[in-house]
Amino acid sequence: MRRPIVLVPACQRQLGNHAWHMAQDKYLHAVLRGADCMPLLLPALAVDADLEAALRIADGVMLTGSASNVDARLYGEDILHPELPQDPARDATTLPLVRAALARQLPLLAICRGFQEVNVALGGSLHQAVHAVPGMLDHRENVLDPLERQYAPAHRVKLAPEGLLSRLLGGEGEMMVNSLHGQGIARLADGLLVEALADDGLVEAYTVASAAGFTLAVQWHPEWRVEDNPHAMRLFGGFGQACRDYQEQQRNRKDDGN
């Protein structure tokens, strides 16, 4: 049996005179080694993308982090910091992709920007600068630090009892996570269930209550050195198993002539 195929939407970047579609290796490696699935890049072609064609061959979807921010106008606000990078082609690809994947009951894993994308796609909003919100911590990394320090555990999150994340981690009630984001959830979209909170009350993980299959979105970066992190391996392992289950369900439907 082939490995399940996981769609990984690309970011669009301008390098020199040309636009490129790309994803960081650490995410693709985590899908391959952590979930035991085959990552397949989905270009950020926006309105020209045939999402249904891609979804027909997919067994799961993973949304990655990125240096760019989700366009604030998509949740009804002006962009407060236009100097920060934007990626309108990715926005126009991933937000409809989220809704289409959920409609197909595909397993969905979302990380950092992806975590924010799902919330916006379903009607939620974001803090454009978490550190400027009274009572909130500064969740950004120091970009001058070496990567090992940037991705080191930075703060605690408390897990929802009996939630998906807690079950994946063997019933644990809290864990330490890295923190490399300037934006975060302001208004959680209807139908999302909190799976983890930071000590300042910021939502750090959630699931989609109405989803028939596996859905999990996390604000931190479990993909970093995934094979060295038991928590991350359990998280990606749960996602990978959900993709295998979906693949098997689709095979059985074909065998039954449905």
- Report the radius of gyration as a whole number of Å: 17 Å
Distance between the termini: 21 Å
> What share of the residues lie within helices?
25-40%
Give the strand tally.
13
Q: What does this 3D model show about the protein?
A:
This protein has about 260 residues and is an alpha/beta fold. The chain is built from 7 helices and 13 strands. The chain has a 9-stranded mixed sheet with strand order 4-1-5-6-13-12-11-8-9, with helices on both faces. A two-stranded antiparallel ribbon has the order 2-3. A hairpin with a 4-residue loop joins strand 11 (about 190-200) and strand 12 (about 205-210). Helix 3 (about 90-105) crosses helix 4. It is globular and about 55 Å long.
State the gist of this model.
The chain is α/β, with parallel strands linked by helices and 258 residues long. The protein has helices at residues 25-34, 51-55, 88-103, 113-121, 147-150, 164-168, 230-255, and strands at 5-9, 11-15, 18-22, 38-42, 60-63, 108-111, 125-127, 155-159, 174-177, 184-187, 192-198, 203-208, 215-218.
Write the layout of secondary structure elements.
Layout: E1 5-9, E2 11-15, E3 18-22, H1 25-34, E4 38-42, H2 51-55, E5 60-63, H3 88-103, E6 108-111, H4 113-121, E7 125-127, H5 147-150, E8 155-159, H6 164-168, E9 174-177, E10 184-187, E11 192-198, E12 203-208, E13 215-218, H7 230-255
Parallel strand pairs: 1-4, 1-5, 5-6, 6-13
Antiparallel strand pairs: 2-3, 7-10, 8-9, 8-11, 11-12, 12-13
Helix pairs in contact: 3-4
